[in-house]
Amino acid sequence: MNNFKTEIISWYSANKRSLPWRETSEPYCIWLSEIMSQQTRIEQSLPYYLKFIDAYPTIFHLAEAKEDEVLKLWQGLGYYSRARNLHATAKYIAYELNGKFPDNYNDLLKLKGVGDYTASAIASICFNEPAPVVDGNVYRVLSRYFGVDIPINSTKGIKYFKTLAKELIDHEQPGEYNQGIMEFGARQCKPQSPDCNICPLNESCVALQKKMVALLPVKIKKGKIKHRHFNYLIINNDEKTILEQRTANDIWKNLYEFPLIEDKHELTEEQIIKHDIFKKYIPHNKFSIHLYNNDKIVHKLSHQYIHTKFWIVNLQTKIENGIEKKQLNEYPVPILIANFVEEFSF
């Protein structure tokens, strides 16, 4: 095991990518980078990290921001609950803890939006606590190197790999080791077709010896994908349109969207016009309607597919309680809506 951790740290020292949060041990920066990198590739999260650091250079700046501003800056990064939790935690640390982050794993774990992995990363990188990280990259490295076929998303697997990670972590350099094994999984022990010929661990890797690299890690398949049909009403006159905030405990909470008719099935134009939600916004016959996209746009989320149609409804009357079209880009919206707004050219 000593050889394993030594090789990981050595490989990391020689191969690590140059990233801004690796130039500091400031908890705010590490926390921000780790939250943004959850279920997200670094190449995607890096521009957002730079934008956030520029807009909110300290935890106090982030705490003082309005949630709409935070969500707008986060727009396109997905998993928006991360942004809402980020903002809530910033307020808590700024106002309740006087801007000082908890300095240990157990207290970090109490923060909203901070789970085992993020608490371990901050504790090890910022406070040199030997708290092992276990994420998708780490699961892959450990399962292959030690030849473990226990499903990584099973209760047994989660416990087993956490225990193994605790045994392996370098107590002298926990932050370097944690970052090293995550980087190793992301760049060397990749999910598909890793180059095992140049791997420093190839002589002792069980999966390579037993020709099991492509079979590990094992993951239990989850339930079926949920399909939802969204029909957006783009209600228009010369100057205004209508946006609403999503407030239900569902995807895209607190983001904005056009009036929505959701159904379990695909709806026709006739069904749209007869729908109560349509009548709520268009209580008269002074309108014209047409479908903007003849082919449904399928927006794929982790456990559900959103089948989307945009219905253009032009009015001959004024829109009450609408917003100016030129203000559309000021509101935080799902990327699905943002792409439509850009393409439609209001």
TrEMBL record:
<dbReference type="InterPro" id="IPR044298">
    <property type="entry name" value="MIG/MutY"/>
</dbReference>
<dbReference type="Pfam" id="PF00730">
    <property type="entry name" value="HhH-GPD"/>
</dbReference>
<dbReference type="GO" id="GO:0006284">
    <property type="term" value="P:base-excision repair"/>
</dbReference>
<dbReference type="GO" id="GO:0051539">
    <property type="term" value="F:4 iron, 4 sulfur cluster binding"/>
</dbReference>
<keyword id="KW-0004">4Fe-4S</keyword>
<dbReference type="InterPro" id="IPR003265">
    <property type="entry name" value="HhH-GPD_domain"/>
</dbReference>
<keyword id="KW-0479">Metal-binding</keyword>
<dbReference type="InterPro" id="IPR029119">
    <property type="entry name" value="MutY_C"/>
</dbReference>
<dbReference type="GO" id="GO:0032357">
    <property type="term" value="F:oxidized purine DNA binding"/>
</dbReference>
<keyword id="KW-0326">Glycosidase</keyword>
<dbReference type="InterPro" id="IPR000445">
    <property type="entry name" value="HhH_motif"/>
</dbReference>
<dbReference type="GO" id="GO:0035485">
    <property type="term" value="F:adenine/guanine mispair binding"/>
</dbReference>
<comment type="similarity">
    <text>Belongs to the Nth/MutY family.</text>
</comment>
<feature type="domain" description="HhH-GPD">
    <location>
        <begin position="36"/>
        <end position="187"/>
    </location>
</feature>
<keyword id="KW-0411">Iron-sulfur</keyword>
<dbReference type="GO" id="GO:0000701">
    <property type="term" value="F:purine-specific mismatch base pair DNA N-glycosylase activity"/>
</dbReference>
<dbReference type="Pfam" id="PF14815">
    <property type="entry name" value="NUDIX_4"/>
</dbReference>
<keyword id="KW-0234">DNA repair</keyword>
<comment type="function">
    <text>Adenine glycosylase active on G-A mispairs. MutY also corrects error-prone DNA synthesis past GO lesions which are due to the oxidatively damaged form of guanine: 7,8-dihydro-8-oxoguanine (8-oxo-dGTP).</text>
</comment>
<keyword id="KW-0378">Hydrolase</keyword>
<dbReference type="InterPro" id="IPR011257">
    <property type="entry name" value="DNA_glycosylase"/>
</dbReference>
<dbReference type="InterPro" id="IPR015797">
    <property type="entry name" value="NUDIX_hydrolase-like_dom_sf"/>
</dbReference>
<dbReference type="GO" id="GO:0046872">
    <property type="term" value="F:metal ion binding"/>
</dbReference>
<dbReference type="InterPro" id="IPR005760">
    <property type="entry name" value="A/G_AdeGlyc_MutY"/>
</dbReference>
<dbReference type="Pfam" id="PF00633">
    <property type="entry name" value="HHH"/>
</dbReference>
<protein>
    <recommendedName>
        <fullName>Adenine DNA glycosylase</fullName>
        <ecNumber>3.2.2.31</ecNumber>
    </recommendedName>
</protein>
<dbReference type="InterPro" id="IPR023170">
    <property type="entry name" value="HhH_base_excis_C"/>
</dbReference>
<keyword id="KW-0408">Iron</keyword>
<keyword id="KW-0227">DNA damage</keyword>
<dbReference type="GO" id="GO:0034039">
    <property type="term" value="F:8-oxo-7,8-dihydroguanine DNA N-glycosylase activity"/>
</dbReference>
<dbReference type="GO" id="GO:0006298">
    <property type="term" value="P:mismatch repair"/>
</dbReference>
